[in-house]
């Protein structure tokens, strides 16, 4: 009958629990007195308060060193990358003259790229600048935000603007390619001297087959007024300058490997490891029966 003795009645268990939760004799709540609870509460309050303060302080110190308008870790020595439009995965512009659908996408890509350059939009967004000099807008103690950018009108691309010829020459086998230089914040491209884009056949033997090129703006010139670029947050309406190349007499059914590079005194184009530094190479081929 010892087993029975050990067993508690339901009422006893209830009573024990009640006493555990609130013991009127010892004035303990869940086994602790009020002052004990208060101490525990105080400890956690101080502990978490300290953690929060530490976190906030660290965050604050970190943010003090960050200028919201200039990316902190940018490579000042970097050379601008160069890219073409239309851009394809392998940088190959290949199409068949008699098949509209084979070049239609290229024209569409150029259309969407050039929309921001519409004269009306440029007139609304950007200002007319004096050519041949940097568009500097220093802060001189006070923040000079937002900064203005200079107009680059779509009509400046003439035969490659897609305005008079919505096929950008693709239909007649005299296609246009746009060359653009990637943006680098605070980079004074050209070091105050004129710069331009030039394109050549990768293999000299192919120069004849590549035929003549037309460049827009004339001579592939890139004006200094589009530099320096101050960053997306500061110079919201900035549109980068582009140079259009029109192949006037491309030999059909032939792979042309073309290299376009930026000629500027402070842009190196001979980096072996980065083949997009200051230059870009692409293939163009127009098939014709
Ligand atoms: C830009 O101009 C082209 C040609 O005039 C027009 O088709 C297009 O809708 C314009 N885009 C914008 C965004 O103004
Ligand atoms: C761009 O086009 C607009 C509208 O036609 C014109 O007012 C402005 O002077 C042009 N800007 C440049 C740089 O040619
Ligand atoms: C940017 O362009 C808008 C029109 O699209 C214009 O209202 C605004 O003033 C421009 N901002 C700057 C900083 O040029
Ligand atoms: C389009 O053609 C007209 C008439 O031939 C010419 O005046 C205009 O300059 C051309 N526009 C472009 C952007 O080439
Ligand atoms: C176009 O190129 C061919 C050979 O590639 C050449 O015979 C012809 O004279 C060139 N035409 C022009 C207008 O340059
Ligand atoms: C292009 O720029 C280079 C170097 O800045 C210069 O030597 C060359 O004459 C320029 N070419 C043209 C067509 O302006
Ligand atoms: C170009 O397209 C036409 C029509 O589909 C086709 O007959 C021809 O073989 C194609 N030519 C080449 C070189 O791909």
From TrEMBL:
It is a single-pass type II membrane protein. It holds the Pfam family Na_K-ATPase. Gene3D superfamilies: 1.20.5.170, Na, k-atpase alpha subunit. Its main location: membrane. The chain crosses the membrane at residues 37-63. It is found in: Cell membrane; Membrane. InterPro entries: Na/K_ATPase_sub_beta (IPR000402), Na/K_ATPase_sub_beta_sf (IPR038702). Keywords: Cell membrane, Disulfide bond, Glycoprotein, Ion transport, Membrane, Potassium, Potassium transport, Signal-anchor, Sodium, Sodium transport, Sodium/potassium transport, Transmembrane, Transmembrane helix, Transport. Belongs to the X(+)/potassium ATPases subunit beta family. This is the non-catalytic component of the active enzyme, which catalyzes the hydrolysis of ATP coupled with the exchange of Na(+) and K(+) ions across the plasma membrane. PANTHER family: SODIUM/POTASSIUM-DEPENDENT ATPASE BETA SUBUNIT, SODIUM_POTASSIUM-TRANSPORTING ATPASE SUBUNIT BETA-2. This is Sodium/potassium-transporting ATPase subunit beta. It comes from Pantherophis guttatus (Corn snake). The gene is ATP1B2.
């Amino acid at each position: 009958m010892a087993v029975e003795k050990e067993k508690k009645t339901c009422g006893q268990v209830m009573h024990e629990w009640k006493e555990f939760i609130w013991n009127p004799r010892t004035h303990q709540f869940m086994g602790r007195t009020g002052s004990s609870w208060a101490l525990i509460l105080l400890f956690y309050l101080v502990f978490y308060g300290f953690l929060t303060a530490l976190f906030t302080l660290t965050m604050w110190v970190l943010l003090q060193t960050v200028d919201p308008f200039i990316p902190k870790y940018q490579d000042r020595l970097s050379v601008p990358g160069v890219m073409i439009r239309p851009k394809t995965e392998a940088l190959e512009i290949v199409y068949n003259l008699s098949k509209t659908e084979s070049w239609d996408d290229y024209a569409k890509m150029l259309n969407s790229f050039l929309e921001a350059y519409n004269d009306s939009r440029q007139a609304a967004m950007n200002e007319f600048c004096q050519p041949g000099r940097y568009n500097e807008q220093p802060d001189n103690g006070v923040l000079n935000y937002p900064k203005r950018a200079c107009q680059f009108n779509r009509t400046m691309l003439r035969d490659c603007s897609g305005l008079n010829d919505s096929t950008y020459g693709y239909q007649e086998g005299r296609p246009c390619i746009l060359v653009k230089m990637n943006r680098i914040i605070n980079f004074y491209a050209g070091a105050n001297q004129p710069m331009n884009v030039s394109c050549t056949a990768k293999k000299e033997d192919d120069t004849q087959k590549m035929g003549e090129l037309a460049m827009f703006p004339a001579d592939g010139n890139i004006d200094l007024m589009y530099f320096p670029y101050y960053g997306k947050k500061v110079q919201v309406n900035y549109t980068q300058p582009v140079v259009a190349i029109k192949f006037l007499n491309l030999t059909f059914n032939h792979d042309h490997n073309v290299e376009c590079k930026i000629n500027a005194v402070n842009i190196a184009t001979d980096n072996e490891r980065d083949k997009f530094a200051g230059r870009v190479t692409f293939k163009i081929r127009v098939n014709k029966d």
